[in-house]
Automatic annotation (TrEMBL), chain A:
Ranges: RCC repeats: 14-67, 68-119, 120-171, 175-228, 229-272, 302-357
SUPFAM superfamilies: RCC1/BLIP-II
Stored InterPro entries: RCC1/BLIP-II, Reg_chr_condens, Signaling_Regulatory_Domain
Keyword annotations: Repeat
Gene3D superfamilies the UniProt entry points to: Regulator of chromosome condensation 1/beta-lactamase-inhibitor protein II
Entry-linked Pfam families: RCC1 (PF00415)
The protein's name in its UniProt record: Ultraviolet-B receptor UVR8
GO cellular component: cytoplasm
UniProtKB/TrEMBL annotation, chain B:
Protein name: Diphthamide biosynthesis protein 3
InterPro entries: DPH3/4-like (IPR044248), DPH_MB_dom (IPR007872), DPH_MB_sf (IPR036671)
Involved pathway(s): Protein modification; peptidyl-diphthamide biosynthesis
Family designation: Belongs to the DPH3 family.
Source taxonomy: Eukaryota, Viridiplantae, Streptophyta, Embryophyta, Tracheophyta
One annotated GO biological process: protein histidyl modification to diphthamide
Reactions listed under catalytic activity: 2 [3Fe-4S](0)-[protein] + 2 Fe(2+)-[Dph3] + NADH = 2 [4Fe-4S](1+)-[protein] + 2 [Dph3] + NAD(+) + H(+); [3Fe-4S](1+)-[protein] + Fe(2+)-[Dph3] = [3Fe-4S](0)-[protein] + Fe(3+)-[Dph3]
Gene3D superfamilies: DPH Zinc finger
Domain DPH-type MB: 2-58
PANTHER family given in the database record: DIPHTHAMIDE BIOSYNTHESIS PROTEIN 3, DPH3 HOMOLOG-RELATED
GO MF, one example: metal ion binding
Pfam families hit by this protein: Zn_ribbon_CSL
Keyword annotations: Iron, Metal-binding
Amino acid sequence: MEENTVVQESDDEQDIWSWGAGTDGQLATGILQDEHTPQLLRPLSSSLGLVTSLSCGGAHVIALSSGGRVLTWGRGTSGQLGHGEMVNCLHPKLVNAFQDSVVTHVSAGWNHSGFVLENGAVFTCGDGSFGQLGHGDYKSQNLPLRVSYFVSKRVEQVACGMRHSLVLLKGNSENRVYGFGLGKRGQLGISTEKVKSTSLPQITIGLTNLEIVNISANGDHSAALTADGSLYTWGRGFSCASDESIPRLFEAAVTVDEVALGWNHALLLTRKSKEEIMPIIEKKVLQIAAGAEHSVLVTDNGLIMTWGWGEHGQLGLGGTDDQVSPQVVSLGNTSATKHAACRVFCGSGFSFVLRNCSQTRETK
Amino acid sequence: MSYDDVEIEDMEWNEELQSFTYPCPCGDLFQITKEDLRIGEEIARCPSCSLYITVIYNMEDFQDKPNKKAEPPKPQSVAVA
């Protein structure tokens, strides 16, 4: 669901904050309640090093550590945590299936999960009722199971949406994007005909020979980004637009660096917004994230700003009001001597921040 | 305002909740019981928040008639080919 960029590694300290809907344990606070302000979490693990990225789903979270280990927590009732059981987990817990592997990319969907290993293998677990695990059946799995369709291929990324999944292959082959799971809204991009669902991966058409660098899925939407900043989208139409059953080029004179999909909205981070001051917020923007109905950004001076739906405190502003423009979230004081690099991640109704603090690093 | 219009075939039967469900953006589930559908209710609510969806369905499918099977059509196919 969540775009999955790796934070620059360092030996310095790291803070992890969470807020929003919390009744499935997804905030890792150890209590089953919503939080309206950012909660500073205890280190997720003492032995695994820094968390390099997070992916947040419907009500669960997958954390990737610097050593390629995986921790999961939150809702587990469909097996999406990969712990071999179907129960919620209030605290980050190591996924033992990957104890001897290096995981390089993860994705959390509504109730399913995807994991890519260094050797190019892709594993899935969780809800499989729509074929979104890609194993050729409609069963759920509570332990990560290798998607055998890709056994002779090398996978680079996986993206899990509400009821579908996308896979991006490494290398220069003609067709590198595959879809599986529910296809009713066109979110698989595998055919111009109506497709109900497929439990085996099929090639997403219309992306042939493009240098895709990133894939995203959330709700019934899908997106792919090319190296030169072109964006392709398919699936459910935004704001009453019709569904697109094959990838369609987003035609605008912008270079897109990042895309964040919600359930009814999408955010684009353009090259320009990183280099020029954005009028509304009067800052440059470094990164974006989208929950189902809320949005988060990080500015170049390390501010976190949120807007959108706020009923569960997912904006982290202390209340439950909706916001129609970006508002600054207070994460508590950072010492002025510290340089903090923040990255934001959104699940359906909750938000996470990874803040890497360094005493020595110079601010550019 | 209704968050979305969802066809009954896109909802999942949840044995534990004894309801048809659909994902709510808060992370919980919109829910509606067979009894609700039988009496013509078309709003499925989320127990955790203020949102609700409108369920698109044919009321006749949920009426108990001697000549008709009592079970509604399956909300989705889970059969393995």
